[in-house]
Amino acid sequence: MIVIFLLSSTMSSVSAQNDSPIGRWDLTVDLGNKLVPSWLEVKLSGMKTLVGYFVADGGSARPISKVNVNDGKISFSIPPQWDDSDKDMVFEAVLKGDKLTGTIISSKGQRQTLVGERAPLLKRTSAVTWGEPIKIFNGLNLDGWHASKKKNQWVAENGIMKSPQSGANIITDQKFNDFSLHIEFRYPEGSNSGVYLRGRYEIQVEDNRGQEPLSTFFGGIYGFITPNEMAAKAPGEWQTYDVTLVGRRVTVVANGKKIITDQIIPGITGGALDSKEGEPGPIMLQGDHGPIEYRNIIITPAK
Fold this sequence. Notes:
The protein is mostly beta strands. It has one helix at 2-15; strands at 23-30, 35-45, 49-55, 62-64, 68-70, 73-78, 89-96, 99-105, 111-118, 134-135, 145-147, 155-157, 160-163, 170-172, 179-186, 192-197, 201-206, 239-246, 249-254, 257-264, 284-285, 292-301.
């Protein structure tokens, strides 16, 4: 009873300061020359300490050891991940209602403004009814797809969508909500790619055969969900993902093995197109981390 009372008191004190920051937040950050998506989760650790996770426009979810709430301001700092710097990133924001506004001082000292809103739960209240399968790559050309950059290195040859060297990502023109996806891929030794669901949640495609599974390795939802086994084949072999995404719930079958079963994706992963989680989104294939080939890309949307 004492623990319950203390927890209740702590939650009340946090909520009294411009409402509670506890929860998940979809952020948009202004870098000056472009807007990029970001994501924040704040949660209670024990009776009074707030901790969390943060996803920048690149990289994986990083732990926040302590989130400070003082005089209506939310702040924290985290060490750099991929930046060549010794300085921490500093986050400061004010919560009003269900909106965040604030700034980020990057590890390189750049000041960036941010806005955020509470992430949708994406819960589904009825069973899924599936529509007809759609072959979203016709095997002949790149109709129905567009590159993320002006220069496009992707080509279609003999039923295969190829990225022979690092360059742009490639994105479907069509957007999807809930769906089941079949996709086949092949990579050379040491290469790396990814399949982005709704353009926001990356399933890692990487040469990790024989290694222990990690959320950032083959089959993982990048930085969030670790597969229950390493199912990768050798480089040069064709491999398959069969993925079902309903709301936030994802199941991944890799090379015939169910490696993720009905798990919740907390938020966007690094490299996402946007943070508008309540909206449909495209399929995006990563082409900026090495050579990769895809074929037989078939999506079955929910009705």
